[in-house]
Design goal:
The chain is an alpha+beta fold. It has three helices and twelve strands. It has one domain: Lipocalin, CATH 2.40.128.110. Helices cover about 15% and strands about 45% of the residues. Strand 8 and strand 9 form a beta hairpin.
């Protein structure tokens, strides 16, 4: 009887799992169109980071800026097949530049004491966040765009702090003669790029999970 039950069980298992079919071969990827390389000759990256937690009044909303994003735009036809390759040294970030905060206004209008700016810079580049000692650059790369003329979305590979993540960024793009201008403004959570918000005092004072990104690129043909 026991032998019969084991035989029946094996038959049932065999019926429940149909034979595995071979996966169809992947469609061959169309070769990318030849790219014309345009050099990034001007850029600005701004991060708006907000305080949070029960003791947030002891902290500041921070404006983090850099104008040292460099790289190339790989321009193809049609334009949606274009992409870019960019890098930024993390040490180029400036915390709460007085002129930048004045231009931003609103929650960022008031200046931040230098000692607080210095502490934020060291915390941000430290091992627990960007780990700039081991990974001194942030890299951004996109292989193609989607959307309509002038208004696009890019799948951007963000490499920072030793890991790579993909974020979707909207871009407006204008091309006039030998000049290309691109701008993107969007919101992210720390987890979107593999980071954990900085906290102190068991979370009584911390950085809010979401932050705002503003990116502007100025590229020239053949520069």
């Amino acid at each position: 009887m026991r032998k019969f039950l084991w035989t029946a069980l094996l038959l049932l298992v065999g019926c429940a799992a149909p034979p595995r079919e071979e996966a169809p071969p992947a469609a061959p990827r169309r070769p990318a169109a030849p790219a014309e390389t345009w050099s990034v000759v001007g850029s600005s990256l701004t991060l708006r980071v907000y305080r949070d937690g029960p003791m947030q009044k002891l902290g500041h909303n921070h404006l983090i800026t850099s104008d040292r994003l460099v790289g190339v735009v790989l321009l193809r036809q049609p334009l949606v097949e274009s992409g870019f390759e960019l890098s930024l040294p993390l040490e180029s970030f400036v915390i709460d530049d007085a002129a930048a905060r004045s231009r931003a206004g609103g929650e960022f209008a008031a200046p931040v004491p230098q000692k607080d700016r210095d502490a934020t810079w060291h915390n941000m580049l430290g091992e627990k966040l960007l780990n700039a000692a081991q990974h001194p650059e942030m890299r951004l790369a996109a292989e193609a765009l989607s959307g309509e003329t002038g208004h696009y979305q890019a799948r951007v590979h963000v490499s920072v702090a030793g890991s790579e993540h993909v974020v979707i960024a909207p871009f407006t793009v204008t091309i006039e003669g030998d000049q290309l201008k691109a701008h993107s403004s969007f919101r992210l959570n720390h987890a979107d790029v593999g980071l954990v918000p900085f906290t102190v005092a068991l979370g009584a004072l911390k950085v809010r999970d979401d932050f705002e990104v503003d990116l502007t690129l100025d590229a020239r043909r053949g520069s």
